[in-house]
Design the sequence.
């Protein structure tokens, strides 16, 4: 099926409710020190509806003038990103099949009405390393295409606790989030829901 040939693996309900709650606590404690920022598209400066922050030595950022990139400092506070929660190192080790640890965890927060347009993740020098994604909070409609800008797409629902592993060819597949389904989870605390948090663990540098 889709999963094994392409390197796309959806681990439905990989994290139980207790693991999700512990992860949310670790994430929100770090977001306190490293607040969500509003990313802007290169050149147009158009603001994205998803809000972001990062954990780990490198974080993904974008703005009008400098575009998409990884950097060591938060674009607003200028501080280093917080460290990765141990649970995310453990998850990466359990599911990624990659020998080196993740260097970046992009944290995406979707409020009601937020979406993420179809795109391919290609800003990492480590272009063969997998990406591991964790969904927390409200469910989302995720749409996965293929390696080219056109062609058919498949819609999937990502629920809280789901983990997606993108390895091999799927690592370069077009994808996006069409919408979230507000009120489908009670995991996130008041102020964060309705809403969805997605964590993506990534290798950025090629290393030696
Ligand atoms: C999300 N995040 O749910 C989505 C999907 C992103 C992003 O797309 O870049 O932050 S996470 C699943 C994902 C990540 C990277 C590659 C692929 C899927 N893929 O090739 O299908 O916030
Ligand atoms: Fe992506």
Sequence:
């Amino acid at each position: 099926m889709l999963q094994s040939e392409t390197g796309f693996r959806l681990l439905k309900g990989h994290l139980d409710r207790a693991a999700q709650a512990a992860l949310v606590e670790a994430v929100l404690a770090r977001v306190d020190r490293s607040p969500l920022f509003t990313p802007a598209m290169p050149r147009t400066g158009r603001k994205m509806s998803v809000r972001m922050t990062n954990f780990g030595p490198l974080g993904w950022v974008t703005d009008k003038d400098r575009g998409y990139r990884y950097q060591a400092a938060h674009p607003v506070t200028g501080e280093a990103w917080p460290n990765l929660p141990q649970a995310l190192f453990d998850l990466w080790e359990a599911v990624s099949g990659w020998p080196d640890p993740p260097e970046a965890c992009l944290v995406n927060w979707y409020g009601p009405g937020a979406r993420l347009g179809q795109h391919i993740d290609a800003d990492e020098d480590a272009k063969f390393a997998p990406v591991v994604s964790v969904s927390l909070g409200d469910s989302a409609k995720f749409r996965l295409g293929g390696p080219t800008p056109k062609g058919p797409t498949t819609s999937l629902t990502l629920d809280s606790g789901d983990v997606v592993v993108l390895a091999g060819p799927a690592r370069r597949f077009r994808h996006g989030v069409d919408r979230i389904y507000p009120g489908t989870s009670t995991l996130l605390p008041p102020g964060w829901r309705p809403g969805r948090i997605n964590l993506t663990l990534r290798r950025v540098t090629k290393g030696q």
User: Anything to note?
Assistant: The CA atoms of residues 136 and 160 lie 4 Å apart. The chain has a mean pLDDT of 96. Residues 2-202 form a domain with the Jelly Rolls fold (CATH 2.60.120.590).
